Amino acid sequence: MATHKLLLLPGDGIGTEVMAQVKRVLAFLEQQGLASFAIEEDLVGGAAYDQCGLPISEEAMKRAFAADAILLGAVGGPKWANVPYEARPEAGLLRLRKDLQLFANLRPALCYPALADASSLKRELVEGLDILIVRELTGGVYFGEPKTITDLADGQKRGVDTQVYESYEIERIARVAFELARTRRNRVVSAEKHNVMKTGVLWKQVVSEVHGADYADVSLEHQLADSCAMQLVRAPKQFDVLVTDNLFGDILSDVAAMLTGSLGMLPSASLGAVEELTGKRRALYEPVHGAAPDIAGKGLANPIAMIGSLAMALRYSFGQGDVADRIEKAIAGVLAKGYRTNDIKSEGATVVGTEGMGDAVLAELAIG
Ligand code: NAD
Question: Quick check: is 193 catalytic?
Fold first, then answer.
């Protein structure tokens, strides 16, 4: 069995608490002979700043480059509110994404049947929902130049952001979406605004070309991003894989997230290009939530998003979809049995803390 090189970066606040539960799952998988890991651990965010004055050390960056996958908890907290801007905790995460060129952000929106009532939509609309949003993460209007605020002669000001995409950026994210669709229900919706934006015209054209050339077996539909937002809340189960740019992806993935209940349930992945030499992709897996200073240190955090991030690493970096399925089945089982952390509690539930939820997941994993 291949040994996976895994770098753990627990970070700050509840990041360390939820990562502790992932370590227990990793130990279980090894003991059962289900997977083999070479695990390293380092600091990121405020914890790294306290140790070396940087939000991530050069040593940790080297480890990140050498790893097959990185699991990150969360960064940030009021303790570091006044550190210099370049050294703020979030800069550690941004450096990882930038230096490792993680251009594809994958955010699954999965609604476990046991949690369907926690959604703001009706149960029948969201029960069994399983969408994968593929967001372009390193281009578009968040990075395009010029990006300025200038003073005008008449005393007004002008703010400018620039939406820029080159065809290679669209092509590589489209390929990620089509490849993933083939492992799921074989459907891709691509969202842009070709009716009012030139980048939208190019986006639609390149996605169509990639589809025609290499992925004609996958069904492709183009939707305008505003109409797509409406469809996401009208009939979300029509979606399988949704691919879109950085800005629309930011918004649409938050909409999809809220269909499923709590922040504490949502994992994510950020992937780079496949390297020619090794055939591997750089990859970082993390919960969508932050360091939650309001509950940090209290043993209340929901570890499911973090454990789900490990399942994504097994599926997308380690080729062990069967073990990922087993973890996700264990999570569904725990929820079906009524175990809940505070953030997802409902009437009649057995309310547990972070470790209690870890215990429940491990017990369910052991059943198989
Ligand atoms: P947050 O996600 O940390 O918390 C938002 C709310 O959700 C809080 O009430 C929190 O208690 C709750 N929550 C989040 N995760 C939970 C979990 N696993 N279990 C139970 N409840 C959970 O967002 P925020 O409060 O806006 O930010 C707090 C800090 O985290 C800030 O410093 C922010 O910059 C940082 N942050 C980091 C990341 C990251 O590391 N990727 C993402 C978002 C925010």
Answer: yes
Residue nearest to atom 42 of ligand 1 (CA): 290
Q: Whose CA is nearest to atom 20 of ligand 1?
A: 301
Secondary structure of 100-134 as H, E, C letters: CCCCEEEEEEECCHHHHHHCCCCHHHHCCCEEEEE
Atom of ligand 1 nearest to the CA of 342: 20
Could you tell me the residue range of the domain that residue 163 belongs to?
Answer: 106-264
- Judge whether 217 counts as a catalytic residue: no
Closest CA to 306 of 289, 322, 292: 289
How crowded is the C-beta side of 40, counted as CA atoms within 13 Å? 17
Does residue 215 share a domain with residue 349? no
Ligand 1 contacts (CB < 6 A) are 14, 74-77, 90, 93, 263-264, 286, 289-295, 301-302, 305, 341, 343
Helices 198-214 and 167-182, packing angle to 10 deg:
50
Kindly state whether residues 71 and 23 are assigned to the same domain: yes
Blockwise average pLDDT, block size 10, the chain, 368 residues: 95 98 98 97 98 98 97 98 95 94 95 86 92 96 94 98 98 97 97 98 98 98 98 96 97 88 90 87 95 98 97 96 96 95 91 98 94
| Of 289, 294, 352, best ligand 1 pocket probe by most atoms within 8 Å of the beta carbon | 289
Measure the CA–CA gap between 350 and 337, rounded to whole angstroms.
Answer: 9
- Residue count of the chain, please give it: 368
- Residue matched to tokens 């089945």: 329
Residues 128 and 260 in one domain: yes
Is 99 a catalytic site residue? Answer: no
What is the pTM for the complete model shown? 0.92
Sign of the Cα pseudo-torsion (284, 78, 340, 229, in order): negative
> How many distinct structural domains can be found in the chain?
2
Domain shared by 133 and 242, yes or no? yes
Residue 49 known to be catalytic? no
